[in-house]
Amino acid sequence: MYAPVPALLLAALARHAAAIAIPEPTALAYVEVRAPQITPAAILFRGDRSYAYDKRNILSDIASGVDNVAKSWGSVLGTDLPSFFTDGIPNWFQDFPTGTQVLSRLGMGDSDLAARPTEVLLIPPYANWTERGWNVRLHGNVYRQPLLEQNKIDELANIFLIDTDIKDLPADQQAQARNLTREIFIVQQANQNVSFHLEPAPMQGASGQPGGGNAVTPPGGSQNLTFPYDTTAQGDFDAFVPIQNVSGGGLLAGNETNNVQRLNVYTNGTLTGNATAYLVPPEGITIISDIDDILRVTKIYNPKEGLLNSFARPFTPWMNMPDIYANWSRTLPNNTHFHYLTTTPEQVTRNYMDFIFKTYPGGSFDTRPLNFSDYKATLSIRQFLLTKVFETFPKRKFVLVADTSNSDIMKDYPKLAHDYPNQVQCILLRNTSATDKEDWFPYDTSGFEGLNNRSYMFFRIPNDLKNLDISGGQCLNSTIPQNVTFTRQAEVLGIHGAAHSLTGSAILSVFIALLASVFTFL
Question: What transmembrane ranges does the database entry give (predicted)?
Fold first, then answer.
């Protein structure tokens, strides 16, 4: 019944080849270098905020969105596309229950948690150097995990699977789905005091060299510290905490070394709250990388596959991207720092951190904390966290890596280049629309207008990044065609901006393609 769709779509694409728009390089504006500060807590917590739990019918949302498209031919140019196309943000992993909502849904009370151990999720932190010494940003969550029977876990896990029952999955995928479900249905612990033990870290992460991620083991620095504040109503803690440069072979001063230093951080009283902290010198290169569909295969643009890849299947690297990062770790200067930023809610990020540890250079992390849980907050949290890193390290250069299927990235990355032109070294974006026929998301390149056209690159495969001298400012592989129209684009759908009018047959092909994107999930 749907066999004509590929033919129509190919016909549309054949008729509408994209024009290449290459702007002239623009001069970089001078920006005054700010003195580093001990930055305040990164998250503005609202203890009075809660979120109702609601099982989302993703297929219904998509079908409704496509139905709306049918009412407006203008949508083929992106003006009326449904939000799941224009925002590029998956609807799963939204509005997780928290605290008492979990107990209510499970039919449990506080007494059922009394015998359960207190656990801690500690996000791998970074530290900055100021005139007062090193300050490490300790952030994470304190929680308890209810004891649930497997049949209840399976019932809850099926909420996050489309047209799939957990019992139909292979045994290893069943186990992962159950573990992730347990991580979602936790009860955050408010007003908890957290303390830590720090000591030199011998290694962290897979980077193609001993040690991982360009960082070194400091000669000392073992110490104990207590977090200065109790946890919030959502169980979160997040603040920069000064650490001591212990006498007699302690930490290297940030103004006396070009090396990133590693410290293992152990949360006292639990075996779950361990991570590695990265002490980052004031100057050097920081590679900030998204994870989904750039470091691993996720397919957030295909809800059924995206959920299975995130919820049940083992995380799989995207092509040979680990080799690219391993090469950067080996060849870039010793002051290079890797930072991984995902807007996935913090409850479900242990798999992400484990995957990075085993596959990519070790580095610090940012995730979406619990008070950024609704849809609108999802679209703002990345900008918030990126700005935090930029302002924490005002003298460092940044290489931003991601893909085109996230609209927040397509807005936030070029905005940073406009706002911090002396700090953004390169923007490297995988063009998923050009290489994956399942990606129907248009992406908006308007934010790149006015930027130096050699400071960013839209690439298709990891090997496009080989031999780039990113430390020297080479961001563009001249052999890779750049089709930047500074408007809404989608190679699969043949959308190349408002300047490219579509014929009637192309419009029909686009519309049928939109409908086909729904049928592929059924």
Answer: 502-521
Burial of residue 168 (number of CB atoms within 10 Å: 0-12, 13-18, 19+)? exposed
Q: Are 268 and 195 in contact (CB under 8 A)?
A: yes
DSSP for residue 282: S
Question: What is the per-residue pLDDT for 420?
Answer: 97
Coil vs helix vs strand at 277: strand
C-alpha to C-alpha distances, 198 to 139, 203, 220, 247, 268, nearest whole angstrom: 15, 14, 10, 15, 10
Instruction: Name residue, tokens 């003298």.
Output: 395
In whole angstroms, give the CA distance from residue 335 to residue 326: 15
Q: One-letter amino acid identity for 77?
A: L
Q: What is the mean pLDDT of residues 183-207?
A: 87
Contacts of 318 by beta carbon, 8 Å cutoff, 6+ apart: 293, 294, 295, 296, 297, 430, 462
Residue 280, beta-bridge partner list: none
Contact in structure between 495 and 77 (CB atoms under 8 Å)? yes
* CB-side neighbour CA atoms (13 Å) of 289: 26
The residue among 11, 96, 19, 6 whose CA lies nearest residue 51 is 96
Q: How far is 309 from 306, CA to CA, in rounded Å?
A: 5
Q: Which amino acid is at 434?
A: A
Residue type, 254: G
Q: In whole angstroms, give the CA distance from residue 20 to residue 120.
A: 50
Domain range summary for the chain, segments of one domain joined by +: 285-332+372-521
Q: What is the largest CA-CA distance in the chain?
A: 77
| Token pair belonging to 432 | 């998923």
Is the pLDDT at 323 greater than 80? The verdict is: yes
Q: What are the DSSP calls for 374-403, one per residue?
A: SHHHHHHHHHHHHHHHHHH-TT-EEEEEEE
Distance CA(424)–CA(268), nearest Å, equals 38
Helices vs strands, H then E, count in the chain: 14, 18
Q: For 455-489, how does the pLDDT look when each residue is reduced to its tens digit (9 = 90+)?
A: 999 999 999 999 999 999 999 999 999 989 999 88
Nearest-10 crossing angle of helices 58-69, 504-519: 170
Q: At 95, list the tokens.
A: 């509005």
Q: How far apart are CA 163 and CA 59, in angstroms?
A: 10
Burial of residue 457, with CB atoms counted within 10 A of its CB: 0-12 exposed, 13-18 middle, 19 or more buried: buried
Answer for the pair 363, 338: CB distance below 8 angstroms, yes or no.
Answer: yes
C-alpha 260: how far from chain center: 22
pLDDT of residue 376: 52
Token pair belonging to 154: 């399976």
Reading across the β-sheet that carries 456-459, which strands appear in turn?
364-368, 337-345, 285-289, 397-403, 424-430, 456-459
DSSP class of residue 407 equals H
